[in-house]
Amino acid sequence: MHWIKPEVAGGLGEGSNYDVAREPQLLGDLYFEFADWLGDDIVSTSGFWLVTDRLADALRDAGLTGWELGIVHVSMSEELLLRKPDLELPHWNRLLPTGTEGDDVVLLRRVYLCVSERALQVLRGFSIDHARVRDVSDIPPPIV
């Protein structure tokens, strides 16, 4: 398995009902505000992952297990709009890791997105230039 740490392209947007002190931490839909975007087909923030439609289609077509799609409402920060007024973002989906051991997409310790070799090959067919990919053994030990 491989640990993938995508580009952090923004943060939780206005409308996200998120509280780290409760379970589930997010109630309702995810709202994501892009602060920048370097072109990758997968981005993340605060333990949430977004994938473009084209990457979502490829994951589905590959028959990968351990994931589903959720709704995300995307906006751009005022700063991003000023810096890149012609930027057109693709359509995004929330990637929800649901897998357990043996699946292609697994969430370890609630925050580490891990993918099988097969899933990594699909990801590498897309822009993931700003994501870090490491072996799952490189995940830091839990803080006790």
Q: Explain this structure to me?
A:
This protein has 144 residues and is an alpha+beta fold. The chain contains three helices and 14 strands. The longest helix is centred in the middle third of the chain and has 9 residues.
Keywords, separated by commas or semicolons:
alpha+beta; 4-stranded antiparallel β-sheet; 3 helices
Write the layout of secondary structure elements.
Layout: E1 2-5, E2 7-8, E3 10-12, E4 17-18, E5 26-27, E6 30-34, E7 42-45, E8 48-52, H1 53-61, E9 67-70, E10 72-76, H2 78-83, E11 92-97, E12 105-108, E13 112-115, H3 117-123, E14 132-135
Parallel strand pairs: 2-7, 6-10
Antiparallel strand pairs: 1-13, 1-14, 3-6, 4-5, 7-8, 8-11, 9-11, 12-13
Summarize the structure.
The chain has 144 residues and is of the alpha+beta class.
**Main β-sheet, spatial strand arrangement:** 2-7-8-11-9
General shape = globular
Q: Tell me the helix content.
A: 10-25%
Largest sheet: 5 strands, mixed
